[in-house]
Amino acid sequence: MKKLNGLMIGATAALIASGTVYAHENHDDDKILNGTVSTWVELASDYVFRGESETNDGEIPSVKVAVTWTHDTGFYAGVYYANNLFPDDSANGTNDQINAIWGPYIGMSGDIGETGFSYNSMLFQYLYPGDSGSNYLELFNYLTLPAMGNLTLKLEFSPTITDWFGVEGLQSYNYAIHPSYALPADVTLSGTFGMQKFEGYAESAAGDIDWNHWNVGVSKVFFGWNVDVRYHDTDIEKGNNGGFYDQSYNHQIVDDRVVVAVSRTF
């Protein structure tokens, strides 16, 4: 097994894993193999995934791009790219091997009969240029419940298929609930409460390696661009998380933070 104490383990994921297949309206003559192609872009002050900053506490802005082909049946496939910056205990404080993630993904989404429930399942392959030993595969699963007035609830269970971040024998499971509420003036209030769990790792005396993460924010579309302002936090404490994110050189990436993002689908 890789040494975990003092190792920066960055679990990066695409925002396309939020359970939404990014698509735009197309006419029949725009279709390719009975499907449509869309491109999603985002610029943000930070890239936060399950409470963890992927840009070393917002040291650099976050840029993300996803191109998705969606078939009429609900099957979709695409590719994703984002920049990132991970801390480590080197002299310059950053991991020079990993400065980006890209990855192909495939999935299926749709309604469950006439029940009002819908689903989205996606396989995402994390690929880290410069550090192929950290590559891994995760299966994102979402179930959206029937709307209750202005309230929508989405449930998530996302296990890793291969070793998490390349750490031998370590499996990850993320459980989360994602509520959203439609406010007046076309403003959406949304959030997440999630539990990142692990198996296959002997916890040290330093403490439990699992953690909880949460966020809450508002979003609104202006001139075709979605503007999102969001607060993120975790329950990770220094010296009490088995060496994952509780070290003096990397704990800043799981502190609370506010992130501003603008995105659009073409």
Could you state the order of secondary-structure elements as H and E? EEEEEEEEEEEEEE
Strand proportion: over 45%
- The CATH architecture term is Beta Barrel
How many strands? 14
> What is the number of helical segments per DSSP (H or I, 4+ residues)?
0
Poorly predicted residue ranges:
1-27
Determine the mean pLDDT.
87
**What's the end-to-end separation, in Å?**
43 Å
Shape: globular
CATH class: Mainly Beta
User: Can you say what the CATH homologous superfamily is?
Assistant: monomeric porin ompg
Specify the structural class. mainly beta
The tally of structural domains comes to: 1
Helix content: under 10%
Query: What gyration radius follows from the Cα positions, in whole Å?
Result: 19 Å
The biggest beta sheet is recorded as: 12 strands, antiparallel, barrel
CATH topology: Porin
Short description:
The protein is about 0% helix and about 50% strand. The chain is an all-beta fold and about 270 residues long. It has one domain: Beta Barrel (Porin).
Element layout with pairings:
Blueprint: E1 35-44, E2 48-49, E3 52-53, E4 62-71, E5 75-83, E6 100-111, E7 118-126, E8 136-144, E9 151-159, E10 171-183, E11 187-199, E12 211-222, E13 225-234, E14 257-265
Antiparallel strand pairs: 1-4, 1-14, 2-3, 4-5, 5-6, 6-7, 7-8, 8-9, 9-10, 10-11, 11-12, 12-13, 13-14
